[in-house]
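Here is one chain, start to finish.
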Amino acid sequence: MAVSVVVLVAVLGGLAYMWWSWESVPVAKGLGPLPPVQKVETILLVGSDSRADLEGGRFGGSSVTGQRADTILLLVLPPGHAKATAVSIPRDLRVDMPGGKGAGKLNGAFNGGASAMVQAVQSATGLTVNHYLEINFDGLRDLSRAAGGVVVCTDHPVRDKFSDLDLPNPGCQNLEGDAALAWVRSRHHEELIDGKWREDPMGDLGRIVRQQEFLTKLVGSLAQPDTALRLPQLASAVRADFQRDPGFSFWHLMHLGLRFAPSPGSKLQFTTLPVEPKTIGGVSYVVPKQPEMKQFLSELQSGQVPAVQG
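Its structure:
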């Protein structure tokens, strides 16, 4: 009986601590209430490349000003407990910039703030964004530590001088902290094959594939019961490294956690918007690939799980 009481107190204390931490998460500047859910709930997840809070001058430090969207994901949740879809949106997607500023790359819209980013994504996809969650560089780094790291496997040594990635030994290894951040940010990903460094010809689209694999494992690790032992680390990351929309409550966060636990891999599918490269005015973009894009978005809007894009 005494043990049961201690466990109950510990669980309630942990929930109270997480509630307090989530209530401390700031609302993204300039972002007002978003539209309520009608049929399909859509959450925009943005990874910011802002260096404002990084120490030690890493990733260019203060010499890199402003902010861009390093990772853009739409989490699409059909009604009930149907399988959800996490859609990676390439940051080079050509979109109409908010405020009548003409066309540009989607990640550039982020310089106008969270509200501009929401507008650009809605305009590009036709999907209504109901919630918004933003995480900075330190957030991903801290989450990977709270999860105890994520295992990645390579056939060859890999590096990326731009993201500080350096894995000199092939095989499987556990990445956390700076190494995890360097992995998911790697856009100029090179492998040492037959004595020569060869860059991934897929560029940002190749990075999206690596990000999806990494995030699948990260979410799976965080959904395990022993994550409760790392609540202080999680709470610290949440308070310091996240921003949200004003309607994204702690109880909604709990609902999402329960929806995907304990095996998110069977309840969440990662995919990517169907796009193709195109150079316009001397600038390299990706643009919607038709008719695949129209079909893809139609299936998402109706609550279906679209076929995985290659």
